[in-house]
Amino acid sequence: MLTAISRYGARVLPDTEQIIARTRARGEFIQGPHIARFEDAFARRAGGSHAVAASNGRMAFYYILRALDLPPGSEIVLPALTFWVVPDLARVAGLKVVFADVDPATFTLDPAAFERAITPATRAVVPTHLYGLPCDMGAILEIAARHNLNVIEDCAHALGATCDGRPVGTLGDAGFFSFQTLKPLNCYGGGLALVRSAALASRVRALAGQEPWPDGKRVEKRLLVGRLQRIFIKPWVFTISAFPILWVSSLIGANPDVYLWEKIRSLHPLPEEYTERFSNVQAAIGLAALDRLDEWTARTQRHAQVMDRALGDLPGITIPQVPPGRTHVYYQYCVYGPQRDELVVRCVRRGIDIETLHVDVCSDLDLFAGERVEPPGAPGARRAAGAMQIPVYASLSEEQTARVARVVRGVLSST
Ligand SMILES: Cc1ncc(COP(=O)(O)O)c(C=O)c1O
User: Fold this and answer.
1) Which residues line ligand 1 (CB under 6 A)?
2) The predicted structure's pLDDT at residue 260
3) Residue boundaries of the structural domains of the chain
4) Which pLDDT belongs to residue 230?
5) For position 1, what pLDDT does the model report?
6) Which CATH class is domain 16-209?
7) CA 222/CA 365 separation, integer angstroms
8) Which residues contact 273 (CB under 8 A, 6 or more apart)?
């Protein structure tokens, strides 16, 4: 039977279960020495900033904002195309959100739109290295310096990427990372703040350290969900589980994606499951996974090159652009083509699951109605929402990657 290929693949250590069992046997499932070791290893990789682990990436961002202690009414500029949770948490932290458009060629914050979004009340900007490509940090840092703004990099998709030879998360004043199951470093949830100044880092650490330790059962459940996700996206399991739903959806024009993601809602007050500490078992997994990160990144990049070669010469198709000086880690491989939705359906019918939008055009969400957008309507973000995301993740085999490339090329070239 022909197996289907899922849009998502998780990076999984072969000895995950042994790592979990060891922390449990030592009584270090929730609290233990791996948290500090993981933070140290992460900071060392980044070249010396201060690292503070958190329950997830969004809370790392929230602690950075709280630690900055910006005056009430301060404005923060975020890209119009990002995960809705990030701007909403900025509001929970008491800031006024302003959206700036993205450059549809790179999917990242457009420096010109960012500069136009600045007012005398602006205090911070969040360059989001969306889909694994660093923002134009040279231009963004120069504008931020001129206006005396704090720069907080959203590195949720981009661990391992560099800009002018420097790792993301070390270019601004602080950065934050996500360790959710599908992210470049999979700890089955979790996050981390990377902070340049020791003083700011100690305030972030104090805020993260005020949270209670997580309940053991909750962490067990998290690991179980991760285990199930990892099983469900294996090609043969995916073929007989989620894929038939996608296949039928493609016939009836339904969009099952809406059920995959966290419900869009106000995060004020903060949900209880957000406010806890990072567990030792997850840190132990992260510590071991850091040793494999470069290998996984290189593998994903090789798969992206296969796709570049397969699709780059097709008329009307735009493959991902990587401006000079930046490296892309391809958390998502985004392609523009005509009649996107029809192309996606045809790929699904040939066993290749393609995602259409991984984040949100936040400026179009009811949740952010009334927030300022520069320029109004965020045409770049709307255009970027019309791309499709082709699987290139590290857990694909060479054969599977070649098959994805062949099928997608066949479909795209017959439009
Ligand atoms: C762009 C972006 N920023 C931040 C986050 C938040 O990460 P976490 O889920 O660990 O809170 C995500 C999560 O998917 C994301 O996609």
Assistant:
1) 56-58, 82-83, 85-86, 128, 154, 156-157, 178, 180, 191, 359
2) 62
3) 16-209
4) 72
5) 60
6) alpha beta
7) 29
8) 55, 218
